[in-house]
Amino acid sequence: MTEGESAQDGTGGRAAPIEQATAPSPVVAIRAAIVRGEFVPNQRLVEADLSAQFGASRAGVRAALLELANEGLVERMQNRGARVRAVSLAEAVEICEVRMVLEGLCAAKAAERVTSAEIGELTSIGTAMRSAVASGDVLGYSELNQRLHRRVREIADQETATAVLERLRAQSVRHQFKLAMHPGRPAVSLPEHLAIIEAVCAHDADAAERAARAHLRSVIGALREADDAGTGVRHLP
């Protein structure tokens, strides 16, 4: 049976058509490539190359680059097309300062709305984070880190804050992975994350907000320390 055909059901009739897998839109594909670090800061984004790489039309790629420019991921250059926008340390710090407020809000909202099932999920994430740090699994810890922040935002159900945070995190992607790799960073951030989990699970909105803000202040300090050490920084913890 070829793609797009529908399977026969047991009675000789036709079952529902089998859905074909669809490729992500150009904007989704290019955004994901930037976030994964496949395209480096200041790298030119050539429409013809992107069209071939992602199997999209030139018009679709052009529209995607315009949208990504509005998101702050891409920079349009006069008569020179587009390139991946570089984010300086100063801007990364500013992004963290805004995140501090919004992530604090989301943590407080999550504490007010968290269910018993979600408490179990957050507790499990915390346990897994402890294990990752104890075993030196830095990449695993980074993934759990992102998962925790994402779940707190989802539980908070504050759509406006979530939309802004997703955009800010994408913009600062270059200042993220190496921060997680910075010597000793997971051991420092673990208790900060556990404090957020504890406060949210205790339905203590004020404590959750304070814990989230304290964590982002710590991230700002780590960003500056990493920059001073010449390590630069990809998934902000």
From TrEMBL:
Pfam families: FCD (PF07729), GntR (PF00392). CDD domains: WHTH_GntR. GO terms for molecular function: DNA binding; DNA-binding transcription factor activity. The keyword DNA-binding applies. It comes from the Bacteria. Keywords: DNA-binding, Transcription, Transcription regulation. InterPro entries: GntR_C, TF_FadR/GntR_C, Tscrpt_reg_HTH_GntR, WH-like_DNA-bd_sf, WH_DNA-bd_sf. PANTHER family: HTH-TYPE TRANSCRIPTIONAL REGULATOR LGOR-RELATED, TRANSCRIPTIONAL REGULATOR, GNTR FAMILY. This is DNA-binding transcriptional regulator, GntR family. It comes from Prauserella marina.
